[in-house]
Structures are given as C-alpha cells and as structure tokens.
Amino acid sequence: MRPVTDKVIRRLSKEDILEKTAPLFAADGYAATSMRDLAKACGITPAALYHHFTDKDQLYLEVLEYTFRRRIGRMGEALKGLTKFEDKVRRVVEVLVDAIHDDELFLPMLRRELLERDEKRLEYLATRVFVEPFREIMRVGRDLPPDSYRPSFLATSALALTIGHYTLEPVRRYLMPSDTPEDLRQAIIDHVTDLALHGMRKDPK
After folding, report:
1. Which of 133, 113, 129 is nearest to 121 (CA)?
2. What CA–CA distance (Å, rounded) separates 117 from 113?
3. Cα gap 92→102, rounded to integer Å
C-alpha cells in the first residue's frame, strides 16, 4: 500500500472528497459502500480519508449536508427583494425544481433516505439541511389569510408537489408519451406554481 504523506493528504480538500464520494453513495447507498471504495474514488488511501473524517458515518452525513444544502440551501437568498406573493411562490418552485432537474444526486439520495428511514440521518437532514428552506417557504405563507393553512403543511406541500413530479416522471412519460413537453423544467415550474397559487387562494373553511 502506498504510504500516506502530507502531500497526499493535502491533494484533496474536504469539499473535493465530498464531491467525489457523493456519486458513490447515491448509486450504491451507505451500507454497500466501504471506506476503501470511497478512498479509491478519491484516488487516495483509506488512511488519508480518515485524516479528514472520523469514520464512514461522519463522511456520509457531511455528504448528505453538502449535497442537499448546495441545491436548496439558497432559498432565503433567492427570495430576497421579492414582494409579490405570486413571485415568491414561483421562486420557491424554481429553486426546488433546479435542485432536482438533471441532477443525479439529490433525488436518488433523498429517496434512499426516506426508504431506509434511519432516524439519526433523517433528523440530521431535517435539522441541518431542510430546516432553513422549510422556514423560508413557511414565511411565504404569511401573505395568506390568517388560519387558512397550516404553515408546516404548506411548506411540505411545496416540496411534495415538486419532488413528486420528478419521482413519477419515469412512469408518467409512458402513460402519456404524447404529453411530454420539450422543456420539462419550465413546464413543471409553470404547472406547480399555477396549482399552488390556485389552491392557496381558496377561502378557508
């Protein structure tokens, strides 16, 4: 085995390692991926990997945070300067769609976590990654009539509508092949925004 030197360790930053190991976790999952596999993907030795991360658990949690935060963590920044309710809703949908569209990491990793239901990782995702964009979406709902919708349900619906389209798209395109738009990204943004606005504006019961 090639000895680990300071030069080898410095060759990759923590961010480099997160970038290189995320696709492996997304493809094979946590349990099926070893530190040796991860080190090989980075072109370093397992010992060099342990220089940056205590164990596979720490590496995986940081991969989750890095992967999701980069894609939806900018929700607050994206909403700055917007005053119209309709514009805020559209921007929320745009950020969510852009996190998923043509991305090979976000949706596979999210689906895997929801299926495996590891409570430690789910709590980590909720409190370290999703909490900020979730709160920003709830703030958008402040423009609605008081008591018309539960804020947390409103934010969950925004996530579910957007993520659900991409989750079911592989099936939908076989059910209605003639109804597949040329620009799927824009079609989903327009549809979910319109559907959200139409539903949100109904009078409270």
Report:
1. 113
2. 6
3. 18
C-alpha to C-alpha distances, 84 to 96, 158, 163, nearest whole angstrom = 19, 17, 24
CA 98/CA 149 separation, integer angstroms: 26
- Of 158, 168, 167, nearest to 189 (Cα)? 158
Please report, for residues 56, 94, 168, 184, the alpha-carbon distance to residue 90 in angstroms, rounded to integers and kept in the order given: 38, 6, 21, 16
Residues 20 and 41: beta-carbon distance below 8 Å: yes
pLDDT of the chain, 205 residues: tens digit per residue:
445 444 544 577 899 999 999 999 999 999 999 999 999 999 999 999 998 999 999 999 999 999 998 888 889 899 999 999 999 999 999 999 999 998 889 999 999 999 999 999 999 999 988 998 999 999 888 888 777 778 888 889 889 999 999 999 889 889 988 888 888 999 999 999 998 888 755 454 4
| Paired tokens of 62 | 């940081």
- Specify the 3-state DSSP secondary structure of 43: coil
Q: How many residues does the chain have?
A: 205
CB neighbours of 154 closer than 8 A, spacing ≥ 6?
A: 137, 138, 141, 144, 200
DSSP letter (8 states) at residue 146: T
Distance CA 107, CA 123 (A): 18
Can you give the pTM of this predicted structure? 0.81
